[in-house]
Amino acid sequence: MNNFIFKIYLGLLSVGFTTISILLFLISRQASSWNRCFRKTSETLSQVKAVEKMNDDIREVLSVMICNGAVFEPKFKSNIQ
Predict the structure, then answer these.
(1) What does each C-alpha distance from 18 to 39, 54, 72 come to in angstroms?
(2) Which stretch of DSSP H or E encloses residue 63?
(3) Phi-psi region of 44 (alpha: psi -120 to 50; beta: other; left: phi over 0)
(4) Segment 4-20, tens digit of pLDDT
(5) In whole angstroms, how far apart are CA 66 and each of 12, 53, 55?
(6) How far is C-alpha 66 from the geometric centre of its chain's CA atoms?
(7) Are 46 and 59 in contact (CB under 8 A)?
(8) Closest CA to 62 of 44, 80, 74
(9) Where do the H-state alpha helices sit in 47-55?
(10) What is the pTM of this model?
(11) How high is the mean pLDDT of the chain?
(12) What burial letters (b/e) apply to 31-64, b meaning 16+ CB within 10 Å?
């Protein structure tokens, strides 16, 4: 009986460890992808003349917004009457 409880405890422990390992792997891949997006977006924004005048904090905020999925819709000015 005592051996049976030990096997159940060991099985639950191994399932829990495996689950945590898989979740940490997936989270690290997502973080790596987000960091790559942030780095590339920051480099691209630094090449835009309008953004060059902004300070680094504003560029960081723009990069974070873009990598998080913010959508910027252009506002068209029309002369149609």
Answers:
(1) 32, 46, 41
(2) helix 56-67
(3) alpha
(4) 999 999 999 999 999 99
(5) 41, 19, 17
(6) 11
(7) yes
(8) 44
(9) 49-52
(10) 0.66
(11) 88
(12) eeeeeeebeebbeebeeeeeeeeeeeeebeebbe
Separation of CA 7 from chain center: 39
Give me the residue label for tokens 């068209």.
76
Sign of CA dihedral 22, 24, 29, 34: positive
User: What separation in angstroms does the CA of 31 have from each of 21, 35, 37, 67, 68?
Assistant: 15, 6, 10, 11, 12
Q: What is the pLDDT of residues 28-47, one digit of tens each?
A: 999 999 999 999 999 998 88
Taking the C-alpha atoms of residue 70 and residue 81, their distance in angstroms, rounded to an integer, is 32
Beta strands in 11-62 (DSSP E): none
What is the structure's pLDDT at 2?
Answer: 80
Tell me how far apart the terminal alpha carbons of the chain are, to the nearest angstrom.
Answer: 88
Which residue type, as a one-letter code, is found at position 26?
L
